[in-house]
Amino acid sequence: MKHEHRLKVGPVTFRVGSQWAAPVRQLAELYRDYPAADAVCDFTVRLEAEKPWRRWVRPSVAIRGDYMLPDAVPMALEHGLLAAEMGMNLQMALGYRRHLLLHASTVERDGRALLMTGLSGSGKSTLAALLGEAGWRLMGDEFALLDLDTGTLHPFPRAVSLKNQSVYVMEERAGPNRLGPWLKGTPKGAIRHFRPSRDAIERMSEPAAPALILFPRYGRDLEAAVRPVGPAEVFVRLTQASTNYVALGERAFDALTHLVTTVPALAIDYPSTEAALAQVEELWAK
């Protein structure tokens, strides 16, 4: 690749290469506070033209690398940063085996971690980003890394993908300098990436013990509510939220069983971010 950037996020290193300069320049700016990776990286992502002429004529970006989806639809060059982020997600989802991967957000306080997972649109990304600006350490948004031996959660604080109105919420809370460029017209609407705080980045080698699991659900017409979730339901939900549970076999079963039988779990409904923050603080205090 003519242009490339190497970075380390938590225990994982990436090499992202591109035939175009713009996606790599945007990625380097978004991750400017992160340590550089060594010469040999865990995963490689390549952003290449779908066809040779599509590098210049109506440029289209195909996401390739160590692991690929052969039927993936190429993206417009203006969404090159999003393609790089998706490429890193793809490498993790298909190739990572050192920890049990859970599609979840994680924040930490006083050495204990809060794990949040839910369907797309549940608001977990925005909630995690807001908590990271309110006295919590943001450990990660896209993936939570559960240690198969110790049961602790390891940080993976990538940039948080924010959609539509949540962008303005975080811009008001943290200022515009922590946000990447606008990516408009994506399949998920208008997107900006939010860079975690410097403290979260500097402490991304510090694991934490899980203390609470939340399943948030956002809706303007919902009333704030809390209900307990039993271990069996939590187990099923988390296996569905994992991309490598089957590949890891018995060790993943044992680690997940220990998690769901030792850590309380609750489902919360909330009509606004303010209500969600209040619910989290109240539940955490208990």
From TrEMBL:
Keywords from the UniProt entry: Kinase, Transferase
InterPro entries reported for this sequence: HprK-rel_A, P-loop_NTPase
GO terms, molecular function: kinase activity
Entry-linked SUPFAM superfamilies: PEP carboxykinase-like (SSF53795)
Domain of life: Bacteria
Protein's name according to its UniProt entry: HPr kinase
Species the sequence originates in: uncultured Sphingosinicella sp
Lineage, broadest ranks: Bacteria, Pseudomonadati, Pseudomonadota, Alphaproteobacteria, Sphingomonadales
